[in-house]
Design goal:
This protein is of the alpha/beta class. It is 33% helix and 15% strand. The protein starts with a strand and ends in a 7-residue tail after the last helix. The structure holds adenosine-5'-triphosphate.
Amino acid sequence: MHKLTCLFGGTFDPIHYGHLKPLVELQQHCSCEEVRIIPAAVPPHRPAPVASTADRLAMLRLALAEYPGFTLDSCELDRDGPSYSVLTLQALRASMPDAALCLVMGSDAFAGLPTWYHWQEIPELCHIIVIERPGEAAAGAQHWAQQRLVEHVQRLRTTTAGFVLPLRLTLLDTSATDIRQRLATGQDVKGMLPESVLDYIREQGLYLSSI
Ligand code: ATP
């Protein structure tokens, strides 16, 4: 049986409960040893983050301090060039050859996976946990994934890579864009992100104008 490490990437501009709460549910469901949060430097498919790298990292550190088993991996920030997942996974696989690595993504991102840089290598390097999102196609609709589908999380521990596990989790209707817009227009964001992160945003004067 292999150690289970869940990998969750994003811009985290800022991190919020829409990220954290489903990940806690995932951690409990999978009894995974580690939930590794991997902030992206230059997302290949989207505009640059609003907050600086240092601020996004500081907010992540504050948030994750309250979550045992959650770790922060800044490998994509330490590397030059775009944050291609396949490069990150190659590096993680080299450093953790015996771990069952599980890339966690929403079903919307999963549907777009075949457009990612060198995507065919990804299921060779890790398992994929697909968080089913309402209105999005099921993971099994992806022809390439059909032979890889598993129903039970225990299967992921039997090998280090290659399976696709669809999961339903309780999702919140929170986005970083909404939080940034609210902050820029003086609206309340209480309960949408950890207090420690909100205090930091206020102290540093982040997201006051740019959305
Ligand atoms: P933005 O609004 O700036 O696009 P975001 O809130 O979507 O940001 P990201 O850092 O881009 O946050 O998200 C990282 C990952 O978290 C992505 O895979 C995204 O789909 C997922 N995610 C974001 N918000 C939610 C949510 N409310 N429920 C489930 N997954 C979410």
